[in-house]
Design goal:
By secondary structure, the protein is α+β, with helices and mostly antiparallel strands. The protein is about 35% helix and about 20% strand. The chain contains eleven helices and eleven strands. A six-stranded mixed β-sheet has the order 1-2-3-4-5-6, with helices on both faces. A five-stranded antiparallel β-sheet has the order 7-8-9-11-10. Helix 6 packs across helix 10 (about 290-315). The two termini are about 35 Å apart. It comes from Metabacillus bambusae. This is DUF4268 domain-containing protein.
Length: about 325
């Protein structure tokens, strides 16, 4: 799990999600239904999946360092929370005392849990660091391939792992028949289309919680205090995309507002600048057809992202470095 604003570990997780064969080949697993930063028993899981052949839940914890106390504590809590499953712990190296503590925890519990210790090749870090701090945030996804230059990115430590036949009861099926009378289906369909059409906006790649009850989906915009909010239908039967500025970010909002004429030419004349809440909003009446509403929302969301990312993420001091990177910018 990344710290202090760094996306290093998330980039590594996303790389593995987009290249599942790396994990599958090294660990002899078949993974499906992969989610990033999913919530489970109050814990944020770097990667979650279902192992197709066994039906077991799979939990992946990544640390681009030697195993440490914070990750150890999270894994101990995970072992307590699950009844059975596969835990994959990936780090540069493992402290013997932590390996013993995790193995003993599983053995003493009597639970049907497999534990894979996997080392991460440090040769990956130059590329990960380049993606994390030397690449425009909207260009990270398309450049994940640079990590493919490392031939052996991970290695299973079979001698210290706990691996035995395991049988779960989970099954993942790709959803095609949506029931839009259910809010969860509406939200999941919207997120599926956002990930498909705008995969380079990394916030969409993160799993969202409470989709069965959320009317508005919040997505971080890469800077503290700024969120992209989307809904297929609010209480007034409107769909909208909003960029909200809180904490110490309103000055960015007002700087963008100075270019509102150009912003409206790019996104649409319906674009609103709401000074009382420091919000940039595009709203329209939800269509009867959810598919049609979502299609328009995705188009507007992408315009928001491409138009406002330079100003939000980099500001004037770095804008010259990135101004040629995007299709739309102010």
């Amino acid at each position: 799990m990344s710290k202090n604003g760094s996306e290093r570990e998330f980039i590594f997780s996303l790389y593995l999600k987009e290249n599942l064969s790396i994990l599958e080949k090294e660990l002899n697993l078949k993974l499906t239904g992969v989610e990033l930063e999913s919530k489970y028993a109050g814990l944020k899981i770097d990667m979650f999946a279902i192992e197709q052949e066994s039906g077991a839940e799979v939990f992946v914890e990544n640390v681009l360092l030697k195993s440490d106390y914070s990750h150890q504590y999270r894994l101990l809590k995970l072992i307590e929370a699950i009844d059975k499953g596969v835990i994959i712990y990936q780090a540069v190296a493992f402290k013997e005392k932590y390996v013993k503590q995790l193995r003993d925890k599983i053995m003493d519990s009597g639970k049907d849990i497999n534990l894979y210790f996997v080392t991460i090749n440090p040769d990956l870090f130059q590329g990960i660091d380049l993606l994390n701090s030397g690449t425009h945030k909207l260009k990270v996804f398309e450049n994940l391939h640079i990590l493919n230059e490392i031939s052996n990115p991970i290695q299973l430590l079979k001698g210290i792992s706990i691996i035995h036949p395991i049988h779960g009861n989970k099954e993942y099926r790709e959803k095609y028949n949506w029931d839009f009378t259910k809010r969860e289906d509406v939200n999941n369909y919207l997120l599926k289309q956002l990930r498909k059409k705008v995969p380079y906006f990394l916030s969409f790649q993160r799993q969202k919680s409470n989709l069965d009850s959320l009317r508005i989906i919040p997505c971080g915009f890469g800077k503290s205090g700024i969120s992209l909010m989307l809904t297929v239908e609010d209480m007034r039967r409107r769909a909208f995309v909003e960029l909200r500025f809180k904490e110490d970010t309103p000055p960015i909002y007002f700087k963008i507002k100075e270019k509102k004429v150009k912003a409206r030419k790019i996104i649409g004349e319906e674009l609103e600048f709401l000074d009382d809440t420091c919000t940039i909003a595009y709203r329209f009446r939800s269509y009867e057809d959810v598919y049609e509403t979502v299609e328009r929302l995705v188009q507007i969301a992408e315009r928001f992202i491409l138009t406002f990312s330079n100003d939000v993420l980099y500001g004037e001091e770095k804008l010259d470095s990135w101004k040629e990177e995007l299709e739309y910018s102010l």
